[in-house]
Predict the 3D structure of the following.
Amino acid sequence: MSALLESYVAGHWFRAADEGQTVLDAVTGEEVARVSSRGLDVSALVAHARDVGGPAVRALSFHERAGMLKELALHLGGHKDEFYALSFRTGATRRDSAVDIDGGIGTLFSYASKGKRELPDDTVFLDGAVEPLGRGGTFLGQHVYTSRTGVAVQINAFNFPVWGMLEKLAPAFLAGLPSIVKPATQTAYLTEAVFRRIIESGILPDGSIQLISGGVGALFDELGEQDSVAFTGSASTAEILRRDPAVQERGLRLGIEADSLNASILGTDVAPDDPEFELFVKGVVTEMTVKAGQKCTAIRRVIVPEPIADRVIAALSDRLSRIVVGDPADETVRMGALASIGQREEVRRAITALRRSADLVFGDPDAVQTRGADAEAGAFLSPVLLRAHEGADEPHDVEPFGPVSTVLTYRTVEEAVALTARGRGSLVASVVTHDPVVARAITLGLAPWHGRVLLLDRDDAAESTGHGSPLPMLVHGGPGRAGGGEELGGIRGVLHHMQRTAIQGSPDMLTAITGRWTTGSQREITDVHPFRKSLAELRIGDSVATMSRTVTLADIDHFAEFTGDTFYAHTDPEAAAANPLFGGIVAHGYLVVSLAAGLFVEPNPGPVLANFGVDHLRFLTPVKAGDAIRVLLTVKQITPRSSADYGEVRWDAVVLNQDEEPVATYDVLTLVAKTWPAEKTWPAATP
Ligand code: NAP
């Protein structure tokens, strides 16, 4: 008898008292596991997440959370063989499993790296710039994101038992939320195995991740305003969840990734001997056969110009005839089994529905040759290609969640866009064309109906990640029928879990709340030049107010000659006088910035190790010969790097002229040592 999968609740493994639902090996039909959550205390589950997990995760900064995700990715990477062995039993080949297992671990790495690079070492994220709300600069607005105090429930489909869990977990964890993971029963044994490794590692705080093996029971009764559910699965389950009182009455946030009739469109410009023709055919066959077509992003509709439809069908059929179906653990097999016999029955029913308005042009839905496996004991199915009749409805309605696509034809670009839109919103479309005019017309026509559009041609094919691969840095989700949800998309996926709030107040209050110095806040002009302070000694608001320097015509001439920037506004008095903005010779903006550096720098070796750039540089007022400039430089933000002996310091720089008008504003970005020999008695180089 196989093992009854357990749930993980409030720091303990929970085993249901009943026998549970039996899950069969997709390849052999043997029993793999039993699944049940009967008797699971969902109140305790949610309470533990809320009272223990949430506070523990929220106490960590974004960088600390990112560090844990990286550690977790490294840890899971050491157990891949064990995961692959189980993945074969789901019907997945080695290549399919790589998408799921390596893809999931890669998503953890990606979020770990983005969390470190794009989020502050803090628990609050600033959204956009400060908004001035009063003339005197004493009343400002700033949007901030903070962690919600609820739980993130993650309900996944059967097709990606590892990636599905990790791609939802990583952004939620970075956002400071505890997760409750609910895998689909059919492949829950693989998710449970990965989950056990996560728990054993001890990397994530107690209560930050819990597991339900089996049904969710009365879980939704426990959920409300601060909680979210991210659901991936069928449109029919999505509909049930949408109607739940937790969503309808208690403000539970529900994100949905449901079924999707993705399309690939061949441009009108492509002839059969163009490289794009081959790329198109290859792309369609890949998407039909990877994971045996059980991918939410798989190409279901193949939309081609009417005059070459026969050539496309012949080329697709030829390629499909070479796909070896069978035991996924056999390296020569290209396509494994569907997840279950029940799933195969569903796909067969979908094919029957499609055949009401389409002809079968390749494959036999009822029979398939298999290598190394029993075609009837396992959930094997031949790839199936159909050709739609003129005006067919079914291909735009029926999702065959298996290795099945339907060819549809069009005559004009407008018709191609209109046909694709009949899917009522999809996750992804690909456009295969080498003509930029066709590409723009189709892409902009499709964009309102899709979460992602892939353009494929001879120039990007070698590096293209392909139609079917959601990437952690790009959004995954689609409008309308695809569920209307959005996941991933780099830091966007983290912010989905957080609450955006507009904070209004004085500059000092905003500085205190955001941890970032706000223009108008107090500055601390200390005896010690801040360039002589280590990261440990620097404080937000530490400032330098420099002496002033008069900019001369000789300075401008010298800079023009030295750099070769002899633009007329700096060198030709007559032409410069005619310039409507300057009315005479002006200093180069870069000269102003260079002189400013000369004014604020402290030249001796010290804790400031490097200047790695400037942000938001704006030249606001022209500087003319005879103008005197000075600089106010203030520590705006301090971000230690956990993996280095230094951190980043962002300085607010304002260059003023003799009339106290700002001539340039920007942020200076430096790397500063965390510690430095005590040198506080050194005289500051500038007052
Ligand atoms: P499903 O039957 O809707 O199941 C999805 C998940 O919902 C499973 O974990 C399932 O658990 C759970 N579930 C079912 N009824 C529930 C309820 N009343 N309350 C809470 N949870 C419930 O879908 P599926 O057949 O597994 O997946 C195939 C579908 O998913 C396809 O339509 C496909 O297009 C879609 N999909 C979409 C994406 C995407 O990103 N957009 C990705 C993959 C798949 P049990 O398994 O325990 O019933």
Observations:
- Residues 155-159, 182, 184-186, 215-216, 232-234, 237, 240-241, 257-260, 296, 399, 401, 427, 482-483 surround NAP (CB under 6 Å).
- The mean pLDDT is 95.
